[in-house]
Every structure is written in C-alpha cells, then in structure tokens.
C-alpha cells in the first residue's frame, strides 16, 4: 500500500484513504455523494484484501501444522518448512486483521 501526503496538512496517509486520518478533511473534494462512493469503493477493496489474506493465512497455517506434525512424528527435516509456513500464515493473519480494522475505520465515515 503506497503512502501519499494529505494536501491539507501534509500528513502521510494511505493512497486509498478518502478522509485524512490526521486533519479529517476530505481528500476527494467536497461532493458528499462522491465521498460516499469513494468510501464504499475503498471499503470494498479493503475487505477483498482482507479475504485474500485470510485465505492465505488458512492455507499456510494448515500446511504449517501438517509440517509440524511430520516433524514431530517422523523427525523429518521437511517439517521445519512447516514451521516457516506457520510463521508466514500468522503474518498473513495479522495483515487480514489490519485490513479489517481499516475497513471498520472507513465505515465510521459512512455513518456520519
Ligand atoms: Zn490531513
């Protein structure tokens, strides 16, 4: 996710932010209909990204656990790969939660 600068207060913000998280001013102009359209678009994108990260987390954690079991039962070195996958899976889970929080933050603007 690229960072840009707010044109009002110069704070660093995500490029798909609709309102600045620092000064709370609109980054897409004053048209309320357009703001809400951009918000819905941004929420949708954020939720889809969260879905992708959740799917990746599920796959990696599953493979990681299988690898861990192989390591535990057979003492095969390939099981170490499972541990690495487990860590990757946890990382993807963290990314998913981050996007969920961001989507929640964006929804707050729609309720105003
Ligand atoms: Zn700002």
The percent range for strand residues is: 5-15%
**Structural domains: how many:** 1
Bound molecules: zinc ion
State the order of secondary-structure elements, H for helix, E for strand: EEHH
Strand order of the largest sheet: 1-2
Quote the distance from N terminus to C terminus.
Answer: 26 Å
Specify Rg, calculated over alpha carbons. Answer: 19 Å
Helix share, percent: 55-70%
Structural class: mainly alpha
Number of strands: 2
Molecular shape:
elongated
Largest sheet, in brief, is:
2 strands, antiparallel
Average pLDDT, to the nearest integer?
A: 91
Count the helices. How many? Answer: 2
- Low-pLDDT stretches: none
Quick tags:
single chain, 112 residues, mainly alpha, 2 helices, 68% helix, binds zinc ion
Architecture overview:
This protein is mainly alpha-helical and 112 residues long. The protein has one domain (31-110). It is 68% helix and 5% strand. The protein is built from 2 helices and 2 strands. A two-stranded antiparallel sheet has the order 1-2. Helix 1 (32-74) runs antiparallel to helix 2 (78-110). The longest helix has 43 residues, at 32-74. The protein is elongated and about 65 Å long. The protein starts with a strand and ends with a helix. Zinc ion binds next to loops.
Break the fold down into its secondary structure elements and pairings.
Blueprint: E1 3-5, E2 12-14, H1 32-74, H2 78-110
Antiparallel strand pairs: 1-2
């Amino acid at each position: 996710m690229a960072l840009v600068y707010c044109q009002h207060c110069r704070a660093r913000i995500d490029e798909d932010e609709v309102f600045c998280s620092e000064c709370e001013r609109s980054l897409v102009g004053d048209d309320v209909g357009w703001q809400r359209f951009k918000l819905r678009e941004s929420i949708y994108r954020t939720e889809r990204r969260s879905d992708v990260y959740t799917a990746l987390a599920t796959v990696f954690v599953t493979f990681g656990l299988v690898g861990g079991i192989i390591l535990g039962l057979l003492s095969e070195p390939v099981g170490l790969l499972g541990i690495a996958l487990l860590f990757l899976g946890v990382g993807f889970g963290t990314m998913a939660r981050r996007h969920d929080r961001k989507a929640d933050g964006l929804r707050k603007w729609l309720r105003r």
